[in-house]
Amino acid sequence: MTVSSAIRARKESHPDRTARIGDLLARMRLLIGRRIIGRTALANIAPGLDISHLDVLDAMRRIEGEITVGAIAEVLRIDPSRGSRLVADLVGRGILRREASQEDGRRSLVVRTEFGDTLLAEIRAVKRALLTGVLEDWDEDELEAFSTLFEKFICDFESIYLQAEKAQEQRAEPKV
């Protein structure tokens, strides 16, 4: 087999692999949509919390700079009033607290309490244990290959998303 025929053969079989990946992503999307990992963690650690509470804690990790209700709502892509209700509930449970901003005393910041930090660490530990259970029969080479390729896959998707978002922002800018 020549190099060009080998490349042609790979290209011809690629749609089947792409279709298989697409099918697997659909299955994964169902699992993610059902929030299996997060719901299991909450059931084991904090049965009184809702998955949206976990979303708030996760969003806070991803915000650079001061964490406000508005920033949380923006990251979660929810209405600010919904974000405010979620934060208020977590404050009432002692998981979060409000502080005045050092930059602008009129602005209220959202901060995890010590209890919130402990809760988040326990939830992460349960999530890691679930993943460890799924991956326990994989050898080191499989884990290395999967983690490297999965990271590449996710990064490429993020890049496409960011490019699309940037293009949308440019289309929305008024033409002068």
From TrEMBL:
Pfam families assigned: MarR_2
HTH marR-type domain mapped to chain residues: 18-155
Name of the protein: MarR family transcriptional regulator
Entry-linked Gene3D superfamilies: Winged helix-like DNA-binding domain superfamily/Winged helix DNA-binding domain
InterPro entries in UniProt: HTH_MarR-typ, MarR/SlyA-like, WH-like_DNA-bd_sf, WH_DNA-bd_sf
Species the sequence originates in: Neorhizobium turbinariae
PANTHER family from the UniProt entry: MARR-FAMILY TRANSCRIPTIONAL REGULATOR, TRANSCRIPTIONAL REGULATOR, MARR FAMILY
Domain of life: Bacteria
